[in-house]
Amino acid sequence: MEEFLTHLMGKKIDVNCGSTATFRGDVIDVKDGILYLRDETERVAYVAIDKIALIYEVKEHASRPGFVG
Question: What architecture is the 2-57 domain classified under in CATH?
Answer without folding.
Answer: Roll (2.30)
